[in-house]
Amino acid sequence: MEILEKKDFLENSQKEDFSLAPESSLNAGSEAKPLKKIILTVVAVFFTLAVLSAGGFFVYQKFFSNKLSSIESPLGETSSAKTNNGSNAVREFASPINGAFHTKEEYENYKDRRPLAVMVNNHIDARPQFGISYADIVYEAVAEGGITRLMPIFHSTDAGKVGPVRSARVHFIDLAAEYYSWYAHWGGAYAPVFPDGTKDYSETNPKADAYQHINDVSLASLDQQWLGDTAYYRDTSRNVALEHTGYTSTNALWKEAPNRYPEEGWTKFIKFRIWKFKDDAVLSERGFVTDIKFNFWEDPNFEVIWKYNKDTNDYSRYQGGVKWVDAENKKDIAAKGVVVQFTVETSANDKKNHLLYDIVGAGPAKIFMDGKVINATWSKAAIRERALYYDEEGEEIAFNRGQIWVEIVPARSADSLSFIAQ
């Protein structure tokens, strides 16, 4: 399905004729002096330009000001922002994922729905992505060949356009499972089936078979192969390869999920372990650690830099030397906290060069918040258990409220991590 073209309101709207009046009418039947004619003509021209400018501004405000910020989705969905309800709106309901406070109206909208994890393409031809800034938390890890994918998890906020959407991988399934989330993806790694019903595990190692792992974990999959154009579509306006053109929206996925899983209980929010949260450090107590740099493999297009903004107490994301902006709303991608989690990476030794990550287990991590770095360890006891983070004293770390990024970096690339302590 291609993106629908917008109606050209300027060509179809009626235009007023602001042509100048005849000289005779300006002179009211008398013979005007040449200078007077020139002055009146100049005044008329300026008047005409002013009217045309005002008319053009009106047309822009009415038809374009809210429409040119992003390509519209044919699903008819829009992104949501936090409701203002006046400047004194009370925000006292904390997100169970990132601790950000919301109004009662916002809370009532999201409290009963399952979180939604979406596999998002991070190939250079897929950038900038849509909808990332609306996620509560974002995970990044290598799929194959040093090329990372993202998995934003949405719960408290809607995104009208998310993507490009890509296929499932087993380590992302392990991450999504701890939220009891819906898992949205466009296909997945799988072992082809021979005519006799057996599978070709030389093509895809059974440990890397995403569809089998989804069944083993009982994760609620919202695969494009099943939902089709009820929740997914293609936008080919960027003129890139087909695998970089698939998109969805959070509302469309939440709407279609019950049709895929009509059985009682599937759509309900299931409680999971909530992290500890805290308020931002006051300005005088914030540190000076910035330019957090690391890479997953060696490709410079995937080297990440997080730059600390002391005044706003957040981190701006750069990758491949480019500052990240959400294509949906043109806002900078900024995290309140960044987790760099070192994990064992092994090859699946199959023809598709799939990778395996020890998502369940324990290991070292660095956590960046408030302009400081925390030497930490991570621990995830089981697939359905939350990963928890502890400081050097063994105390569970409390995160700042707001979007959090978790970077799953191969342990062998730990030496690539550097930062500046000003």
UniProtKB/TrEMBL annotation:
<feature type="domain" description="DUF3048">
    <location>
        <begin position="108"/>
        <end position="260"/>
    </location>
</feature>
<dbReference type="InterPro" id="IPR023158">
    <property type="entry name" value="YerB-like_sf"/>
</dbReference>
<feature type="transmembrane region" description="Helical">
    <location>
        <begin position="38"/>
        <end position="60"/>
    </location>
</feature>
<dbReference type="InterPro" id="IPR021416">
    <property type="entry name" value="DUF3048_N"/>
</dbReference>
<protein>
    <recommendedName>
        <fullName>DUF3048 domain-containing protein</fullName>
    </recommendedName>
</protein>
<dbReference type="Pfam" id="PF11258">
    <property type="entry name" value="DUF3048"/>
</dbReference>
<dbReference type="Pfam" id="PF17479">
    <property type="entry name" value="DUF3048_C"/>
</dbReference>
<keyword id="KW-0472">Membrane</keyword>
<dbReference type="InterPro" id="IPR035328">
    <property type="entry name" value="DUF3048_C"/>
</dbReference>
<keyword id="KW-1133">Transmembrane helix</keyword>
<feature type="domain" description="DUF3048">
    <location>
        <begin position="294"/>
        <end position="406"/>
    </location>
</feature>
<keyword id="KW-0812">Transmembrane</keyword>
